[in-house]
Amino acid sequence: MSAARWRKSSYSNTDGGVCVEVADGLDGVVPVRDSKRPTGPVIMVTAEAWGPFVDGIKRTR
Q1: Residue 44 CA: distances (Å) to CA of 14, 16, 36
Q2: What is the DSSP letter of 51?
Q3: Is residue 11 within 8 Å of 31, Cβ to Cβ?
């Protein structure tokens, strides 16, 4: 995880309540975490599953 480049998701809100970060630069996985808890747990999503996951979120908006 030391090579991860974290960025806040564009789906995070602006008032600091719902803040999701994803990391780029890791082969085959997309790490996801709560930006308010940077040392907390990380959910690892396969790169193959990431696209359909994001598409599903877009459909709910």
Answers
A1: 24, 23, 18
A2: H
A3: no
pLDDT tens per residue, range 40-49: 999 999 999 9
Distances (CA, A) of 37 to 2, 5, 32, 59: 16, 16, 11, 27
Q: How deeply is 33 buried, as exposed, middle or buried, from its count of CB atoms within 10 A (0-12, 13-18, 19+)?
A: buried
Q: Where are the alpha helices (DSSP H) in the chain?
A: 47-60
The per-residue pLDDT for range 1-17, each reduced to its tens digit, is: 767 889 887 767 666 66
Q: What are the backbone dihedrals phi and psi of residue 57, each rounded to the nearest 5 degrees, phi first?
A: -65, -40
Torsions phi, psi for 52 (to 5 deg): -60, -35
